Each structure stands twice: as C-alpha cells, then as structure tokens.
Amino acid sequence: MVDALQNAWRVLRPRGVVIDARPALEYRPRLALRQSDGLRVIGDILREQDPGVAGASRAARQVVRDGWFRVLSRTRRRWTARYSDLEDLAWLESVTSSWTITPSLWKRVRAAWPRHAGPDPIEIGRVYSLTILRKQARRTD
Amino acid sequence: MSPRARRAAASADAFGWITERSDFDDPRGYPPAGFEFDLVEKSVRLAGKHVLEVGCGNGRLTVELATRARQVTSIEPHPDFAARARARARRLGLRNVTVRARPAQTGIRGGPYDAVLFSWSLC
Q1: pTM for this structure?
Q2: Least CB-CB distance to B122: which of A13, A22, A88?
Q3: What integer pLDDT is reported at residue B39 of this predicted model?
Q4: Chain B residue with the nearest C-alpha to that of A89
Q5: Cis bond before residue B31 (omega within 30° of 0)
C-alpha cells in the first residue's frame, strides 16, 4: 500500500493530490428499522477492524510521516445503506467478514420486524472516510 | 469448513454475482457516486483535471468522475470489470475516459496526473 502511494507520488504533477476514499477505520454500523411510526434503532452490528482498511490507514500515515505527502483534508461522513428483508441482512453478514450480527441482535430485529414493511425497511448507518493528500515537492529524508 | 472460510467463499460468490450484474451499482455496499464526489469537491476542484482512478471496478465512479474532470484514466486489475467499465463509458458517450486492465498497485504509471483517486481500492 505504501508502494502504491509512492507510485502515485511519481506520476503526479507538482502539487497534485491523492484522493483516498474508503470505509472509516473505527465505527459501529447502527441497525435500524423503518416502521409506520418512524425509525426505530435496534442496535449496533459488531465490526472487527478490517485489516485492509487498517493497512491503508497505516500506509497513508507513513507516507505523510516520510514527507511524500501532507494532509490537505480529512473527513468522515455517515451514510445510510438500505436493505429489503432479513434474507438481505443475512447476505450482508455472509459477505462482510468483519461484521457479526449477534444472535441477540437477530432476535431483536425479528421481534421488531414491521407487520406492514415498506420498501427497504432496514437501514444501516455506515461511515465513510475521505483523506486528501497533497504531493510534497521535497521529501524530508 | 471454518466460519471464516465459509464467509470467504460467500464473499467470492458475491463477487461473481456482482460481476454478473454488469453496471448495476449495489447500493447496499457503496454510497452514491454523487455523494463521494460532492465530498471530494469540497477540497479539490476536479474541473479541468486529469485524474488517474485506481481500481475502477465496473466503472461505478468512473462515469460520474468523467462528467466532472477533463480526462479520466482508469486502471482495473480484473479484465472483465475493466471491459465492463470501458463499455459503460462508451455506452454513455464519454470520450474522455480510458480504461486499462492493469494491476491496481504496480499499474500506476504514465501521467503526469493532477490527481490519483483510490476509491475503496487502497484498502
């Protein structure tokens, strides 16, 4: 990952930028159900730290520390992903190796499942991270 | 099979499933492209810029990026995805997009570029 950022440095014009967009390293995906009387928060999904995201964060810190880039901006934004039913939720858990929906959370979701569910009643709050790095003209080493 | 191995297999299945779905952008896994670039453009103006996009996948962001930047060069390690991204840009009549099937990390060459975008591809 550091190699990729160093390669980016080589192909950038002076004062060019790297845009690094990815899921935030630390956050708890919040599961809520949209019901007839509004949104009801059911609980948080357990999320282990993703090794890829952690590695990318380390690489970005390293190239800044080593003088290849400086941080121009760093932002986190929450966004909401919507899911249609419990099967969809099970699919999400199966393909997202760092996420676990505990048996007790499953139980609460089933218990709170709306009798007349509208389209995509499951909402999961996720957090997105955006870092912009400015190429430095001179390395400090 | 261990739970982790089962999940890895499911993940591979999902990857194939998404591949099959061509330019369908799964809203369950990614925020809308407009959301991502509106956020980027709070810090960096893309108009008039030549951007290298690393790991373009099926072109989910490429086509939105091409409406904002002067020129987009996208690289994608998966040849099938690269072909789909290319076809998608062509179908939309975007003439400022070049898609190349290259490894995401070692394929970063050429330029010079004004910006290099790693959208969900550095991790």
Answers
A1: 0.81
A2: A22
A3: 85
A4: B28
A5: no
